[in-house]
Structure formats: structure tokens, C-alpha cells
Amino acid sequence: MPNVLITGANRGIGLELTRQYAKDGWQAFACCRTPSQADDLRAVEGKVSIHALDVADARATERLAKEIDAPLDVVIANAGVYGPGSEAQTFGRLDLDGLRDTIETNTIGTLRTLQAFLPHVKRSERRKLVAITSQMGSIEDASGGSTAYRVSKTALNMAVAVAAAEVKSDGVAMAILHPGWVRTDMGGPSGKISPEESAEGLRRVIDGLTPSDKAPFLTYAGKTLPW
Length: 227
Ligand SMILES: NC(=O)c1ccc[n+]([C@@H]2O[C@H](COP(=O)([O-])OP(=O)(O)OC[C@H]3O[C@@H](n4cnc5c(N)ncnc54)[C@H](OP(=O)(O)O)[C@@H]3O)[C@@H](O)[C@H]2O)c1
What we know:
The chain is an alpha/beta fold.
């Protein structure tokens, strides 16, 4: 039975990914900051183990990587934050400490997760490392606002694009995936798609990934996005 590790699995897209993989019979290592408060995650049926993980905490990540002594077929670094309020993400009023914190979670935290579990992925059958990014990290899409969020995702995209070439010879596939505009706490109620639709699409795209010289930047529907 294949397995998957997902960060930010207590709500939103991460929770739905966990539900769907578990429903399909996968073993899920579901990571979240506060397992004792993760009621929706604890209610997911199937082979799901819940692990405490704050992706901004280097020691906690290292500890968990040691604790999970199993090959991991797929790792989905999904945890992320929007950052400071939108006013504080516009030029002239930029909250630079907030920008730093956003990078700490979205860029460094995501890379930390992918890097910590690379050895587990290398030992597995399917060998896939996925970063959940956003279309808003595309420089082509630089239409104003959300500076901290955009910068954190653009930097992540570059790091993963480069990493893909470095793990290709180990048979590891990496990708940067945009989940769509999804009705979650982050996406808000006006989002265009449900977490169910997003997770279904993401799973399909992840299934088709192969090792490459540069990580593909794809939507949940499999469409290539401009950098
Ligand atoms: N929703 C959209 O429209 C949309 C669009 C493009 C990209 N995305 C990306 O999709 C991913 C998931 O977003 P979502 O819509 O599901 O957002 P969400 O509902 O706000 O959920 C965010 C998840 O990330 C977790 N998280 C935040 N900081 C963390 C940290 N330091 N350590 C561990 N977990 C942390 C949260 O945990 P807590 O409950 O502990 O806070 C929560 O589980 C994010 O990377 C986001 O940037 C979303």
C-alpha cells in the first residue's frame, strides 16, 4: 500500500488531500501544528497517523524525520500562510517583519519539509516530492498587492525548480503545484473551487509526475503556468 506525508493536514486543502488518500487505501502521515485541536483530521477514516509538526521549527522537523522510519512514496509540503493583512503587503506600507515570517513558513518551512523527507522518498517506490505553491508566485502575475505572499512563493518556486534537477538521478520527481482558488480559510468563500475538486486534481497531477530537469509549475488541472 502506498503512503503519503502531508503538512498542514488539519484543515483546508491538506485535510481534504488526507481524506482522499486515506479513502483510497493509502497510509497517510498527517502533520499539523496542534494535533489535540485537530478534530476534523482525527475524524478521518482509514490508515491515518497524526504527527505534530510546525514547519517553521527546524528541530521538530528533524525529530519527526527520525521518528518516521519508513519509505515515503509522496510528500506534499502544503502548509502555508498568507502573511500580514493585505494593507501591510502593499509597497509603502510593507510590514517587513511580516514578510520575513511569511518567507520563514512558505519558503524555508516548505523546503525544510521536502529536504528532511528526501531520504525517505528516495527509499520508496513512487518517489515524489511536491510543494504547494500559488499562481500568485508567478512573476507574470505580478498585478499588485500580496507582496509577502507572492515573494515567499516565487522564492519557493525557484528553489524547487532547481532541486528537481539535483534529485533526478535518484529517480525522484518534484513539482510546484497551484491548487486553484479554493474555498478554504485562506481562499475565502468566493474561491472558484471546493477543496474536494482541488485535491482530486492535485492527486491526478501528482500521479503523473516523473523526474525532470526542472520542476514543472502546474495547476491542479495539469495546466503549465508561466514562471
Ligand atoms: N486556498 C487557496 O485559494 C490557495 C490558492 C493558492 C495556493 N494555496 C496554498 O495552498 C496551501 C494550503 O492552503 P489552504 O487554502 O488549505 O489554507 P488554510 O485553510 O489557511 O490552511 C493552511 C494550513 O497550513 C497550516 N500551517 C500554517 N503555518 C504552519 C506552520 N508553520 N507549520 C505547520 N502548519 C502550518 C495551517 O495550520 P494551523 O491550523 O495550525 O494554522 C493549516 O493547516 C498553502 O500553501 C496555500 O498557500 C491556497
